[in-house]
Amino acid sequence: MIFEEKTIILKDGRTAILKSPCVEDAEKLLNYIKKSCSETDFLARYPEEWTTTIGQEEAWVNRLRSAPDTLGITCYVDGEDAGNCEISFRGDMKVSHRATIANAMDVGDPSNFARVLDLYGGSHADISAEISGTTYTDEQIRETVKETWKEHHYLLDPHGACGYRALQEGLKQGETGVFLETAHPAKFLETVESIIGEAVEIPAKLQEFMKGEKKSLQMTKEFADFKKYLLSV
Predict the structure, then answer these.
(1) Residue 62: burial class (beta carbons within 10 Å; 0-12, 13-18, 19+)
(2) φ and ψ at 79, to 5 degrees?
(3) Burial of 10 by CB count in 10 Å (0-12 exposed, 13-18 middle, 19+ buried)?
(4) Which residue among 6, 137, 167, 172 is least packed, with the fewest CB closer than 10 Å?
(5) Does pTM surpass 0.70?
């Protein structure tokens, strides 16, 4: 598939161009991925594992351009490869993305998981010994929100409902558990109101916060610069 070229003006005034890669881009694409892999431990391969030849990369580009269900997109800033991705459009239920009402839990590769790995020294066995996971359907989440509100008059948000239900199902005889909410139900106003059939009261502080203006500050990715900024405020 071919992605129609699109031009975007970045906040710093530079121009970014999104387009399908061409065979002439093969060497740049290879250099980019090798450089990226050398800058972080959180990609699937080390740079030396990329043994793909330019010819093989060209063949991959041609496959992307001719495939009816696969799309490649490359982003160029000032003529340099700033990122690329491959998107496959498949109808298989198991691999297709399905949004749920607890949308923060739909993330396939959460960035904060790196912190968990670090805390456990990268040991999957150690993580599994202390942390377990479970999944719930939208109907199960709705059921938990509705029943908890009806029985205890405690209003869960969809994510908290997952945690509360997992706690209930995991507690053994004689155990007492704690679950942590991460957001006010008002953040999911329409969803929660449709479940309980009532209006959700928005706290005054949250109402004031919602009137605020979003502000951002551009800085480099270097921790030293971030630290310098924090110490200056």
Answers:
(1) middle
(2) 80, 0
(3) exposed
(4) 172
(5) no
